[in-house]
Amino acid sequence: MRSVSIEIRGLSVFAYHGVHPEERENGQAFVVDVWLECPPSRADESDELADAIDYSAVCDRVVELATGGPYRLLERLSALIADDLVARFGVTHARVRIAKPEAPIRHRLDEVAVVAESSAGPNSAV
User: Could you confirm whether 100 is annotated as catalytic?
Assistant: First the structure.
């Protein structure tokens, strides 16, 4: 069996997270990238979705979690999503990056982002 990774890039979500009250009141766009390390499976031979991680379902779950809350810190939200993906989808490792393109910072920048990682097994969250 081969190892397989899944990458989901640029998943746009409108949500109400942030330290400042106006961020939680007005909301803003967030961009989520997800990397999943999958356990060995037969998907590469069977060509069956039942043998694979359904990345459409992963996107649905990420959006569900990202529109929950609200959370003050992206650190909390990204860790919550990473831990959930490992537990729910049985992946061996999840890396979640959440970018905030319109962060209320007085300096010119493209975005700020936070990355959290989680792995299967006890005490293995990074």
Answer: yes
